[in-house]
Design brief:
The protein has 127 residues and is of the alpha/beta class. The chain has one domain: Rossmann fold, CATH 3.40.50.2300. Helix content is 46%, strand content 20%. Strands 2-1-3-4-5 form a five-stranded parallel β-sheet, with helices on both faces. Helix 2 packs parallel to helix 3. The chain is globular. The two termini are 15 Å apart.
Length: 127
């Protein structure tokens, strides 16, 4: 079967995390979760991920700060995970903030399975 892709789901909503994790595992990918940006950073420090699905609005550390920190860590470790923002905000300004924080793409919340699979296929087919 080859390479199993590893995806980290970062969201402060337990329900959202579990739903997205279920959808990812249904596709045969490995899924890990984190409840906030700080937890995401610790998880990335101890593992390697092909894609990080990063909620923007979270307590403790938001998605922008977590993405910037992960990008900084990757410079030191030569990593390059794809970071996809999970956001309910779709303004051009919000999307630009995601990109300038080091994210590669974004998904609109609430997450629709077909949209999630489309993004995963887009980024994983480049691997």
């Amino acid at each position: 079967m080859g390479n199993v892709f590893s995806i980290l789901v970062v969201d402060d909503s337990d329900a959202s995390r579990e739903i997205v994790k279920f959808l990812i595992e249904k596709r045969g990918y490995a899924a890990s979760t984190a409840a906030n940006g700080k937890e995401a950073i610790h998880t990335v420090e101890s593992g390697s991920f092909d894609i990080i699905l990063m909620d923007i609005q979270m307590p403790i550390m938001n998605g922008f700060d977590a993405a910037r920190e992960i990008r900084h860590m990757e410079k030191l470790n030569h990593g390059n995970a794809v970071i996809i923002a999970l956001t309910a905000y779709t303004s051009q300004e919000e999307i630009e903030k995601c990109i300038s924080a080091g994210m590669n793409d974004y998904l609109i919340k609430p997450i629709q399975p077909h949209s999630l699979y489309e993004k995963l296929d887009k980024w994983l087919s480049n691997s």
